[in-house]
Design brief:
The chain is of the alpha/beta class. It has two domains: about 5-125, Response regulator (Rossmann fold, 3-Layer(aba) Sandwich); about 140-210, Arc Repressor Mutant, subunit A (Orthogonal Bundle). It contains eleven helices and five strands, in the order βαβαβαβαβααααααα. It has helices at about 10-25, 40-45, 65-75, 90-95, 110-120, 130-140, 145-155, 160-170, 175-180, 185-200, 205-210; strands spanning about 5-10, 30-35, 50-55, 80-85, 100-105. It has a five-stranded parallel β-sheet, sandwiched between helices. Strand 4 (about 80-85), helix 4 and strand 5 form a beta-alpha-beta unit. It is globular and about 50 Å long.
Length: about 220
């Protein structure tokens, strides 16, 4: 089944380029292309996407606030933030709002398509350098070590902790499999076990909990 992507981008040239790339790539359909998020819920109802490609800086409702609204409306919709900004506050706010991934527009169309595929496979793609910023941010704001963190951390196997560490570095499941010489499906099985043991449902939730509880 094709991935239905709705684009929210106020720059016409960029928006048209994204639309052409999606419609020209096998497995993707541009379900809708919008200049703002000011009619967000209506636009979602019309386009029925399972994935959103979201700009941050738009007039009216910005991309971070729109991300919160989308996740409140339908938590199953994946959101890839694509922006020219790589400053700490915007990265932190976007991820806390529920974004599945965060890449820079300078990454190019190949990276964009790869990131859209990653989030459909429950990955959390980030441009090089962004993952490092995220790790530093969560370490900065993490609370003190807790007994609950001890219990959850101790329930993870050595291999699961290794995979969780690679997840915090922004690696997708295919990259993790290659780095530690496992099959993709074996990595996904380990990730499902991590989710169950940490009581989370996504990569970002697992990363946040791992850092907050100082599990890794």
């Amino acid at each position: 089944m094709a991935i239905r992507v709705a684009i929210f981008e106020d720059n016409k040239l960029i928006r048209d380029s994204f639309e052409a790339i999606l419609n020209g790539t096998e497995g993707f359909i541009c379900a809708g292309s919008f200049t703002s998020c000011n009619n967000l819920l209506l636009d979602l109802q019309k386009s029925m996407p399972n994935t959103v490609l979201m700009d941050i800086e738009m007039s009216g409702i910005n991309g971070i606030e729109a991300t919160r609204m989308i996740k409140a409306h339908d938590s199953s919709i994946r959101i890839l933030i694509q922006t020219v900004f790589d400053d700490d506050d915007k990265i932190f706010d976007a991820i806390c709002a529920g974004a599945s991934g965060y890449i820079l527009k300078s990454a190019g169309p190949v990276a964009m398509i790869a990131a859209l595929n990653d989030i459909q496979a429950d990955g959390a793609p980030m441009s090089p350098g962004v993952a490092t910023k995220v790790l530093r941010l969560f370490q900065k704001f993490a609370p003190e070590h807790s007994s609950s963190g001890d219990a959850e951390g101790n329930s993870l196997s050595k291999r699961e902790k290794e995979i969780l560490q690679l997840m915090t570095e922004g690696d997708n499941f295919h990259t993790i499999a290659s780095r530690i010489f496992l099959s993709y499906e074996t990595v996904r099985t380990h990730v499902r076990n991590i989710y169950k043991k940490l009581h989370v449902t996504s990569v970002n939730e697992a990363i946040v909990k791992a850092i907050k509880k100082r599990i890794i």
